[in-house]
User: Fold these one by one.
Assistant:
Number 1:
Amino acid sequence: MDQRKERSSVNRRQFVKGGSAALGATVFGMPWQALAQGVPNEFDGSKFQLKAPEPNAKSGGVLKYAITSRPPHFDFHQSGTINSLGSQGCMFDNLVRRDPRDSGKTIIPDLAHSWEISKDGQTYTFHLREGVQFSDGAEFASEDVKATFDRIAKPPQGVMIPRSTLFTTVSEIQAPDKKTVIFKLSEPRPASFMMAAFASGWNGIVRKKTLEDNQYNLRRVVDIPGTGPFKSKRRVENEIWVMEKNANYWNKGLPYLDGIEFYHALPFSPELGSAILSNRVDYARICDPVTARKAKDTKGMSTTAFYQSVIQGTWMNNKKKPLDDVRVRRAIHLSLDRPVLVDVVKDVAPMMMGGMIYPFSEWATPLDQLKKRLGYQDDTAAGIKEAKALMAQAGHPGGIKGLDFLVRDVASFKLWAQAIQAMLQQIGVECTLRTVVESVWFDDIKTGKFDLAIGAIVSTLLDPSDYFNAWYKKDGPQNYGFWDNAKFNELLPQIDREVDVKKRLGLIRQAEEIMEADPPVLPVSWEKINDIWFNYVKGHNPYEYFGIYDCVRFDTFWLDK
């Protein structure tokens, strides 16, 4: 069956569609604007059962899956990299989840089989499944959901969770009995936004006792008990993580696979491409475009490219001189030749140019308009001239020497860093590249041990209320440059609350103007992901994914061989 044409038999008008409070998104078949104004909603999915999209799916076999899997630690809630969730995700379930059979466009039941949303949009009640166990044999109950989301929404001291900004309006979480969880909101949000937040693949449920036993910090816990379709069997650092089937999984008939072997390979690397083309693995994620073209022309193989929920950026440390000067930051922003940066990695990673907003979303300034701005033009002469003037105004007519440029050890980042280093020299800015592994990069950027730093950060939703709060807001969990703009911080709550589409778009444009004048990050590029697999790998539909962080369960995968 052509997976691009697949549609499950579920009546989708009953489930959440869209995935964010984006233009045109719907929930239960109704416009999200209407829901935001208080239309009552409820859903009973107690009889819903997830199965593979193809008939007569076979059980058995071990999937060999190649993906970068060098986690900085093991607390996936605290993580912001696929190095964590890519291999760990299959061990956990969500409260609700995205349907893997339609590229995650629909939200379906998971540990919660039913739910209701109050008329005022401020109370979400979820009813949980009976008979669910954690991999350590403990009974799953509402206290585990409450403990998980209490930590996500309001992280304790010493814990940083990038998705906490999705739940800023959650004022209280109640567990009145073992199988009921109630979320109270201090003010309403669009129902599509909230349900998409709950369904994020990052928000897997962990056991309350596991959190308590580890002082609510799971960074050093390799095998975190989950309720998911697979459990950890064996792990070798930087080589392989072997998962085995959870024989007590609550969704009878799933998973089909006996296990998964996650082989570590760096994104876009020749080693990753070689592994899939030689059939040493069955499926490979984040492959380079050259390998994807070869796979497309190879009988028995398939490939696709989909948008990734990531910005490739360079952060400037606003706490350090001279980068604490907005004129210097704006000058550096204008000095980048973004069309060239896309071209530099064309054979390594599929990229596209964009500004501070997802360029493929309805909220973005159209590309033809964006390319008229300084910093995005094909001819960079005007941008460089303005950048030099700004440097002189800031007291640096001769430039700046000795900046520490922190670089993640990934092929695309290393290429970009060299190109950016050369571009900055045009305005007299000189820096030294310091390439480090994933864990060191995250540690150094969080502690401010850098001047410039190139890497990538992720969002959960396309909606600006997600990533504006996480990436750009003062003290946002992924505001790695420590950016603090009073006008932006004052405008952001208005964006979050506004349910009128035209008014909200106007506010977003105001925020964009602020960020162009005072850049919180240097947008380097926006990404697509190449997946490659052999056609005997069934039960998945990656053609229209938004990102690689939601459909990470593998419970519907099966091998037709």
Note: The radius of gyration is 23 Å.
Number 2:
Amino acid sequence: MKKIFAFALAALALTAVSCSKEAGKQETATVEKTFVVNAPVEQNGEGSRSYLEGTKTILWSASDEINVIAATTGNQYTFTLTDGAGKASASFSGEIAEADAEETVFYALYPNLPIKTADLANGKISLNSAIADTQKAVKNGYDPAFGIMTAVAQDGAFTFRHGMAYFKIQVGCEGVYAVRVETSNARFGGRPVYAAETGATSSIESATGRTKATIKSESGPLEKDAVYYIPVTVKASNLETLTVTYFYDEDLTASASLETNAKSKVKLAEGQIYNLGCPPISNDPQILADDVTVNADVTRIEVPCTLVNPIEDGLVTAYVDPTYENTLDILSWEGGESSVIILCDANTDTENAKSTRIVLAYVDTEQEKAVATDTVVVTQKKASAASSHVYTIYAESKSSIVQTADGEEGGDYFTSKGTACASFTAGDTGNYNVASFNIGGTDYVSGIKLDSNGGVQFTTSATATTTVQFWFARRKNGDDSAKIMMVEGDWSSSTKTVELATPFGTAGDSGEIELKPGTQYSIVRSNKEQALILVVVTES
């Protein structure tokens, strides 16, 4: 069967299928039978598209075969096109048992795939096995082995209807070897089951995990700007977010993806085409970063970056955008693998913030050139007229982490990694052994949960005298090795400043610890889970 959009269905080499069906035949006399077979037309007045977009109809090919099923016995027969190649209506002939030749009801399936005979008793045409996840990419068409259609004989003729939906996509980049469409809630593969009398999809069996459909080139990359169709099974619920992925090598290891909500309210239907357009999904390296704002006394500003399609020997560096009025007192730069550090003077101006716009450059150090850039604004807040500051961080009972700066909520002095909160639970062998801890006259009923991925981080003022005091609790009785520690540096630093333990059911108190100016500190666990109840940093 061929479609008028510049492709013809190749002969389906289904030797195994034919053998299995022949083995099930009775050794009885056979007769030749011929059916008129019509390509799909408008379906039941439902307005379903009966042909693929941009074409007038579907035409049969000289090598086409269909599976003809006798409704009463369930016997299956291979029928081959004998007349009408290149037309929408053709003749298919095959040998059939004499007993079945008198049958008045026949079903047909294209392509020539075997079905589960037992399911016919329940009025269903069920494929014998699930269709594969990966299809052959066909320019201006689709893999004929996946273009499933069904039909019921009426007056010696079959009129087919589509059993699959189709995604249409125009490849927007060079060097793409495969395209994948994936969703979180629908099933694009599996074993379709159709209602025998109508051909409508009844269910999709063996569909668990089959949320993706992939078309792959059999020789070289797909043609840029060419159109390809991806047949998928039909599920009753609406689609959610779709992810379209381009693969840039034959092994399907190098890839780039794009999420789209364009079809999020679409309910797939047989014979319908859903145009995904021409997504320009690039495999080129990208560097992405957000604007950064810090307090006036911060002199080491880190600008973290997200790298898309990173390269070997890549390095992030930066320079000041010459078109921007730079007011930040920059001393030097430190480049890195996924961030850049700006070293600058503190802002002592109590009237004005200071800022700069920098161009982040992702550099291929081997070729000594930038392969991607992004632009961000870095702002240093104006200095406060106050001579001292007090910063706190703690967990509220509603399981949200709260920061205050000089008694007002909304501070940004601390960074919390892993924002899960732990609620205190009473019980001799339970968690924490109390319902709350009273610190300085305030009851705290939750703490910041410090597990292997959690912690609190901050950087001290470059000019003030800074101290820290924190309270913490051990989660479980018997975990005598449970400790909390403060390190100088980031989360993974081994430069230990303090390491403390606390009895079960008691709030541990670090006492007041004097810190170095302009230095990064992290409070993390050293062993077993901990709850960090309250952290107070005082600058004077």
Note: The longest strand covers residues 369-380.
